[in-house]
Design brief:
Blueprint: E1 22-27, H1 39-45, E2 51-55, H2 65-72, E3 76-79, E4 86-87, H3 88-94, E5 100-105, H4 108-116, E6 125-128, H5 150-161, H6 165-184, H7 193-198, H8 210-220
Parallel strand pairs: 1-2, 1-5, 3-5, 3-6, 4-6
Length: 225
């Protein structure tokens, strides 16, 4: 769906990747209208039955019976960092059967709203990724240096679950091409909000909301939010 000279098809795998893990992407409606979103690239790398996208803010058992069944399955994981989350590497070592992983797609505030206001998403085992890589999605501002886009989260998670590092490289390839094309055509590299605040480069008005201001203070002081 892009002009020929910036087409990303040559950077996608020739055939969808063979994976046993099924992803459920819970996408906030606002993400649908974003031009440079990453979920379409992720979906293009995987078989259609291994990457299912559900758009919405509220998910209950009556409207989403399949999702409810998935959330109650003992092998289902939800990727959402926090005090209750286990590092995915530890879970993957103990897991031998194919798993289902739920990933929330949206800004951090949108993801938090979806996670805490839908009781279904507290049923699966909560997992998180170790902050070992920096985001390559440099055309969009992230809150911190270790925050990843949905595609990057999925790439790292699948490589861990499938015990295959090449999966991560394959899925990241179209994202790298996307960022390269955008930078060639006038886009600017976006440093994280954490980087801008720590280096005195944040040029937007500071928020008046005390909660948001406190979050910025935590970023500057390198305290995990």
């Amino acid at each position: 769906s892009r002009p020929q000279k910036v087409c990303l098809c040559p950077f996608l795998p020739v055939h969808p990747l063979k994976v046993s893990t099924c992803l459920y992407i819970i996408q906030h409606p606002a993400e649908e209208s974003r031009v440079l979103r990453t979920v379409p690239l992720l979906a293009a790398c995987l078989p259609s039955d291994k990457c299912k996208i559900l758009v919405g803010r509220r998910f209950n058992e009556d409207r989403y019976p399949e999702l409810a069944t998935v959330c109650r399955n003992p092998s289902t994981l939800i990727l959402y960092p926090g005090a209750e989350a286990t590092n995915l590497e530890e879970v993957a070592v103990m897991s031998s059967s194919p798993s289902v992983m739920i990933i929330i797609d949206g800004t951090w505030s949108q993801a938090k709203d979806i996670f805490y206001k839908n009781s279904l998403f507290r049923l699966p085992k909560q997992v998180q990724l170790k902050p070992s890589i920096s985001s390559q999605y440099v055309i969009r501002t992230q809150p911190t240096n270790t925050c990843l886009s949905t595609l990057e989260c999925a790439a790292v998670a699948l490589s861990i679950m499938e015990k295959n590092k090449s999966i991560q490289e394959t899925i990241l390839h179209p994202l790298q091409a996307l960022c390269s094309f955008q930078l060639q055509h006038g886009a600017q590299i976006h440093h994280s909000k954490e980087h801008l605040l720590k280096n005195g480069l944040y040029d937007k008005p500071m928020p008046k909301n005390k909660r948001k201001l406190r979050r910025m203070e935590l970023l500057v002081n390198n305290i995990k939010i």
